[in-house]
Fold this sequence. Notes:
- The protein is mainly α.
- It is built from 4 helices and no strands.
Amino acid sequence: MRYMTSKVTLLALIATVSMLPASSALAACKKDQHLDPMIQKMDQNCDGKISKKEFDHYMNKRFNALDTNNDGYIESKELKAARRKAAKRMQEYRKKMQQREQNKRNQLQNKNQ
């Protein structure tokens, strides 16, 4: 059971880290609104689908981003640091979105005056 919990936690963290900006070695395809954002991130040859090789490449990049001491393992302290970093980025994102909403409300209010 502990292994399963660790595996689920690791997958959730990899998903969280996948929201971080992709490295320049990853896909640089033209944005397509109709394509899933995850496919856009992983699709290196821009064919609109993900091969096992593309998936493995993407996940290896994400693993390496979590393995900050480059020992080939992701340790508890590395996971905690990645969670803190992801939480901080999410908090910054929320602040930015709240500020945008406030700016929109102010613009509408100024328009109506």
